[in-house]
Specification:
mainly alpha, Growth Hormone, Chain: A
């Protein structure tokens, strides 16, 4: 699984990478105008914690259980870019009925219609995920992926920050349902712009495969994909435990903020924004370290904070301090997610990457759909604090399983001193000073 042969010319690759940054910024702004506020909108409609868990579980389940068929569709059609454009455009158009639901329906009818539409939105968009991921691998050189995606994520987080603050302001100003509807409408416009820019990326043909490989794209091939590479197989199964632990409470923090801490719904935009701000600095910080020390080392470093985040939330004495929890979480998740994305690109073969990503997304996604479903219904019976504590325990279990069971190529050892900003520059200056001191001593 070495460096793939260049598919685009140098100029085309640079152009594709620039357009991908613009696409990422528009997509992130769009998603953060709607995504973080779906649970709060459902809560304002009268949804229970179990129904909010269902709101997170159903999209995850349907979006990911069909990832292998989506990968097969992408492989057979061969038009990754066109498939992504169609799916992203249609998924963003589903925002229109989402906006209209609180106006046309009430009670459980409104809540379950809302859940179905949000599920449909995620399901349609997910069909293009394997193709999008493999396309990103083909337009970025492996040697600089950490730095490039670090920069792309910084720009995307800046746009997401603007989107989140705008959504919070609209909701604070107009309340329910008007504020949510205006925020979702802006998300629709920006999302469609993102789809347009993605369509202008220089066309990248899929790596060719021989005919026997093309005929083998069935269930048997999927199991072979899991077992053929030890790192990939173990990464898939450790991700099941990790994602289950993360999503067990992930959809409920906004509810915990609102009901248990007594937070203001408008301030939730500030809370989300604080995580994005931390992520902006985090992506630049972690991106350089990822290129130097490897992806697993960065996942372990950032994963410590991500695994501890539930305990931080559980200990919060006031709702205003939720912004501090998100600062910690945003910084640590920036490193973990950046490295996790790069690692899946590294441990999958170039010519069948779309199928492998489909297998991974299916397994991880099934866990991500079961987690919020169980967590939501347990929150109704045992309370949100209990769910958050269990989530922290499960995350740490997944962390250690990943640490000791996912082999990767030899990487430069990352020590605690290396995590200190500018520590390498300080050591280099110290070494140069020592060398000059020694040379001066010898000359005497």
């Amino acid at each position: 699984m070495g460096e793939q042969a260049p598919i685009l010319s140098h100029a085309e690759m640079k152009r594709a990478m620039r357009i991908s940054v613009i696409d990422g910024m528009l997509a992130s702004a769009s998603e953060n105008l709607i995504g973080p506020f779906l649970a709060l909108c459902a809560l304002a409609m009268g949804a229970s914690k179990g129904q909010i868990g269902l709101l997170a579980a159903l999209p995850a389940f349907l979006s990911n259980v069909l990832q292998i068929p989506s990968a097969r569709l992408t492989e057979r059609w061969g038009q990754r870019q066109k498939l992504v454009v169609i799916c992203s455009g249609l998924s963003r158009l589903t925002i229109i009925p989402i906006i209209l639901t609180p106006m046309l329906l009430e009670g459980d009818a409104a809540i379950y219609t809302f859940i179905v539409l949000v599920t449909l939105r995620g399901f349609i968009n997910s069909i293009g995920v394997p193709g999008w991921t493999s396309l990103m691998a083909d337009i970025t050189p492996r040697s600089s992926r950490g730095s490039y995606f670090g920069y792309r994520n910084i720009m995307s987080n800046l746009a997401a920050l603007v989107g989140t603050l705008l959504a919070g302001w609209l909701i604070e100003r107009s309340g329910f349902p008007g504020g949510y509807q205006m925020s979702f409408a802006v998300a629709l416009v920006l999302g469609l712009l993102s789809t347009y820019f993605f369509s202008t990326i220089p066309s990248v043909p899929m790596p060719k495969k021989n005919k026997p490989q093309q005929r083998s794209m069935g269930l048997r091939a999927s199991w072979q994909a899991i077992s053929q590479y030890t790192a990939f197989r173990n990464y898939c199964f450790t991700s099941v435990l990790w994602n289950f632990g993360v999503t067990f409470s992930g959809a409920l923090y906004s509810v915990y903020f609102r009901e248990n801490l007594g937070g203001d719904p408008g301030f939730w935009g500030v809370v989300t924004a604080s995580g994005l701000i931390a992520g902006i600095f985090g992506h630049r910080y972690w991106g350089k370290l990822a290129d130097q020390y490897g992806q697993k080392a960065i996942m372990l470093a950032g994963g410590m904070g991500a695994a501890s985040l539930p305990f931080i939330w559980w200990l919060l004495p006031r709702w205003q301090l939720a912004a501090v929890a998100e600062l910690v979480g945003g910084f640590c998740w920036a490193g973990y997610n950046l490295a996790a994305f790069n690692l899946i690109l590294e441990i999958t073969p170039d010519e069948e990457r779309t199928m492998y990503i489909g297998v991974y997304n299916t397994l991880a996604g099934l866990a991500s759909s079961i987690g919020p479903l169980i967590g939501g219904f347990l929150a109704d019976s045992a309370g949100l604090p209990t769910v958050i504590l269990i989530s922290g325990i499960l995350r740490w279990a997944g962390y250690f399983v990943f640490k000791y069971n996912v082999p990767v190529p030899t990487e430069t050892q990352l020590g605690w001193r290396d995590l200190i900003p500018f520590s390498q520059e300080v050591r280099l200056l110290r070494k140069q000073w020592q060398q000059r001191h020694d040379d001066a001593g010898l000359s005497q």
